[in-house]
Amino acid sequence: MSRDALPRSAPQRSALRRAALADLAGLRARHPQVFSVPLRRRLLVAGVVAGLAGLALVAMVRLDFSLLRILTGLHRLGEFAVLMLPPSPEGQGLVFLKALAETLAIAFLGTLTAALLALPVALLAARNVMPNVFLRFTVKRGFDVIRAVDVLIWALIWINVVGLGPFAGALAIACSDFGAFGKLFSEAIEAADRRPQEGVTAAGGSPLHRVRFGLLPGVLPVLASQVLYFFESNTRSATIIGIVGAGGIGQYLTELIRVLEMQQVAFLVLMILVTVAGIDWVSGRLRRAIIGAPA
Amino acid sequence: MTLPLDRLPPARASALAGAYAASVAGARRRGLALLVLLLALVALAGFAAEVRPLTLAENIRNFTAYIAQIVPPLTLSNLGGDLAAWYWGLPKWLALLGETLLMAYLGTLFGGLAAFALCFAAASNLVASRAVRFGTRRLLEICRTVPEVVFALIFVIAFGLGPMVGVLALAIHTAGALGKLFAEVVENIDMKPVEGLTATGASWVETVRFAVMPQVLSNFASYGLLRFEINVRGAGVMGFVGAGGIGQEFLVAIRNFYYSDVSAILLLIILTVIGIDLATERLRHHLLGREAAR
């Protein structure tokens, strides 16, 4: 695809273009519908664009946007950028590595716990497993409520229960992912192929047999790939959970930014970038292996 | 309904069971190995994350107690008065909630515009230069890997406290996330209109405008709406680092144990997020439905 990408245009060389431009009036007369957009559509587009821009203007006034602040801020950001070079751990490399390991552990445990807990509950929210409308509806709205609470808020709540530290972070990620997984899993289960399930039922299997042998083998690869995808994004979330004191690399990041130790900040950010890219790569390969494998 | 099936003779049944066991033995072994590996990783991670199940078991009462504490004292006899006491700060909170929504809107808009400007340069079917594509993609990657709260932390120091910082942080993260999705949409377009325009000698910008944009705009809008929903959630916690919105008020309430305030604000946030969720979903189905009907 990349080989035969668009040639950088060659307007002068194209005979077709010259011919078309010479006959522009004729083309207009012959294909009027191409050249004129209906007025209603034009008004609609203009209205939507004007509405969006107007709202943006109102928002900028309400939120105290000021050009002066932006310019001085950009100037100071430039100074920070200079201060960041060269990135260096300044003797704290081992501490940072330990914090990074903690971050990964939080993401891993949180994702795994959430997935294990969400699977049985998601079955209750799937139309093809749970015939009871009322129960299904309740479970689905429950997922929505849990999902609506940000992971940082969950972290604040769990800190009240188990104290400061990475354990609270893992619980927070588990909670917020439980909602997300519940929704995704139940959708995947509803999209599952009916035929294997009918086969199991026809052979005299119980509803549990149907779920275990007719449903799960089909959807597990899909679910596993979603879990891997979330593990990736949770590594990113786990880096910020330390801001409220729930462990991981975020703690150091917050402190170092506050005291303007920009070289160490740059080092930490680089560490995060490399780690996320690494996990991205590994989970991408795993995902392809799982999805590609005959389920 | 059960059909009277004839039982297999025992010899035949055991032969079939043996064949089945032999055929799944490999998969079982692999599954077992995977389980062992997973358990080892769990143990390792549990050690690193200082998991203390005993503390959890001991303090899980705290969780329920906490929930019980933040539930406001509502009595049936004095419902109106209790509600008013619970939501004593409603005007202030609604204003902050409005600010949060505006932050999310501006962040999504600015980030979306930046993503729109960058995504065509990252698409392999429109840009032949490897260097341009590589540079754009790495830029987008950095924007989306660094969490928005980290950007907010740095920007708060550079720009000062306030919602503007939250908007900028959200916008940068959004640009990275949407840029990647947009580029993928662009790479999946039908190339025939592009070839047609190239044949007439259209410039690159003209090709993008008349051959690519009509195909991708509704998808872009749908992804933008999805991102808006995510950004509403993100804007809600920007206040934790002093970057505007309702987060600051919530943090104060939770840190100072103003229990009924915690539940009041939390409920407001949940209702807003779910409302936005439902609204954008309808809008998205509408947009994509029109696309499918075309």
From TrEMBL, chain A:
Keyword Repressor: no
Listed Gene3D superfamilies: MetI-like (1.10.3720.10)
ABC transmembrane type-1 domain: residues covered: 100-283
Membrane-spanning ranges: 43-63, 104-130, 151-174, 213-231, 238-259, 265-282
Keywords: Membrane, Transmembrane, Transmembrane helix, Transport
Xref: PROSITE patterns: ABC_TM1 (PS50928)
PANTHER family referenced in this protein's UniProt entry, alphabetically: PHOSPHONATES TRANSPORT SYSTEM PERMEASE PROTEIN (PTHR30043)
Family: Belongs to the binding-protein-dependent transport system permease family.
Name of the featured protein: Phosphate-import permease protein PhnE
UniProtKB/TrEMBL annotation, chain B:
Subcellular location: Cell membrane
One Pfam family matching this protein: BPD_transp_1
Membrane topology of the entry: Multi-pass membrane protein
Domain of life: Bacteria
Alphabetized InterPro entries for the sequence: MetI-like (IPR000515), MetI-like_sf (IPR035906), PhnE/PtxC (IPR005769)
Annotated ranges, domain ABC transmembrane type-1: 97-280
Gene3D superfamilies: MetI-like
Record keyword Membrane present: yes
UniProt keywords, alphabetically: Cell membrane, Membrane, Transmembrane, Transmembrane helix, Transport
Regions crossing the membrane: 31-51, 63-90, 102-128, 149-172, 257-280
Family: Belongs to the binding-protein-dependent transport system permease family.
Stated name of the protein: Phosphate-import permease protein PhnE
Species of the source: Methylobacterium isbiliense
Gene name tied to this protein: phnE_2
